[in-house]
Design goal:
Blueprint (H helix, E strand, L loop, with lengths): L1 E5 L11 H15 L3 E6 L8 E4 L2 E5 L6 H12 L5 E5 L15 E4 L6 H6 L4 H15 L4 E4 L2 H10 L6 E3 L20 E5 L8 H14 L4 E5 L4 H13 L6 E5 L3 H10 L2 E4 L8 H8 L4 E4 L4 H4 L6 E4 L4 H12 L2 H15 L4 H17 L6
Length: about 375
């Protein structure tokens, strides 16, 4: 097959994240199976117009806004070249259903929903949610690929037939650690991810202030980069909560360093309002580290409540703290959670995920219309 991926971020983009990592892993797998893959994306400072990355042909044109128009122009000049299009969503899709005759798969990691409220002021948030509801219905006669079963349920509620949806779980990049790692000497919690408002990192700081009352030597590690003004607010909050001496801000780190820190920490804390999958939960699990997470979409798929961690459905920082204190105080329960988390992470493998996505591509060639 000759496959065209449309995504305004590519793996080298400064704002690339879990979605790009997952897409890249699938694309590499398709190349290995003999397919040709082109990834059309936007330019960024220092980027090359074209390059090969692990066998994937990266083509960049336009900026984060004009890339949508450039993608349409690119397709018109190369339409006969491609067998299938992956129309990947970050807020909005490329609307290929309005102009492309090539079979299209919508790749949607999550229905943003509440993310619009967390990231943008009114009325932008209202317009964003209305636009999202409209474009999802545009793709109701096409296949929709997502990461989590919980997102499939949301897609069905939004008007996509269930038999048009495929959820393919995302494995971790490296095999789970075979041996239980040595944890930090004192209770240590870690947060990993882009530091933006939708992640609600302030709730982690508030929860940690409660944890520190019970364990005065505890540490909190914040890993990731993001919005400068939001980060400044968080640093100020740590000072006002009198926890700044116990918080380490690592910023962006290498994959190896990230996995090392996850292995040393006792708990991953995840307070996002929404996730497509919550890959870092599995990365933590592969390092024998349970997660305490809010009951948001995606996280409810990756955290097996009561087994590999805890889902906090109240969305209260105080309940994050209570669960950390409760589980850490019972080492028998904690070690069982470690074992279950580690075992869960090992059940997902990239070869299996790639076979599922490749089968989806092949079906799209046979059935241009999913009703057939």
């Amino acid at each position: 097959m000759n496959i065209l991926i449309l995504n305004w971020r590519d793996p080298r983009h400064p704002r690339s994240g879990g979605a790009e990592y997952v897409t890249h892993e699938h694309a590499k797998g398709w190349v290995h199976m003999g397919d040709r893959v082109t990834w059309f994306s936007s330019m960024f400072p220092g980027a090359e117009r074209e390059e090969m990355l692990d066998g994937v042909h990266i083509v960049r044109q336009g900026n984060v806004i004009s890339v949508f128009l450039f993608a349409m122009v690119y397709y018109f000049f190369h339409s006969k070249k491609y067998d299938v299009i992956i129309d990947e969503v970050h807020g909005i899709p490329f609307f290929t259903v309005l102009y492309a005759r090539t079979p299209t798969i919508l790749f949607l990691h999550e229905i943003a929903g509440v993310i619009w409220d967390a990231m943008y002021p009114f009325p932008i948030s209202m317009v964003g949610k209305a636009l999202e509801s409209w474009y999802i219905r545009l793709y109701r006669n096409h296949r929709v690929w997502t990461d989590a079963d919980s997102t499939v349920d949301e897609l069905v509620h939004a008007g996509i037939p269930r038999d048009h949806c495929v959820a393919i779980p995302c494995p971790v990049a490296t095999p789970p650690l075979s041996n239980r790692p040595t944890k930090n000497a004192d209770l240590t919690c870690i947060s990993v991810g882009r530091i933006v408002q939708m992640k609600k990192v302030e709730d982690i700081l508030i929860a940690f202030a409660d944890i520190l009352k019970e364990y005065p030597a505890a540490e909190l590690w914040i890993v990731g980069a993001g919005d400068a003004s939001y980060l400044s607010m968080l640093r100020g909050l740590s000072v006002s909560l009198h926890i700044s001496d116990h918080v380490v801000w690592y910023g962006r780190v290498s994959e190896r360093k990230k996995m090392d820190l996850l292995g040393q920490a006792h708990f991953l804390l995840h307070t996002s309002v929404k996730e497509g999958w919550g890959l870092v939960v599995l990365e933590a699990a592969s390092s024998w580290t349970p997660s305490i997470a809010y009951g948001a979409g995606g996280l409810t798929d990756t955290v097996k409540d009561g087994k590999t961690g805890v889902i906090v459905r109240t969305f209260l920082p105080s309940d994050i703290a209570k669960n950390v204190i409760r589980i850490y105080g019972n080492q028998r329960v904690y070690r069982r959670m470690q074992t279950d988390a580690h075992a869960w992470s090992g059940t997902l493998r990239w070869p299996d995920a790639i076979r599922l996505s490749h089968a989806l591509l092949e079906k799209s060639l046979v059935y241009n219309n999913p009703h057939v």
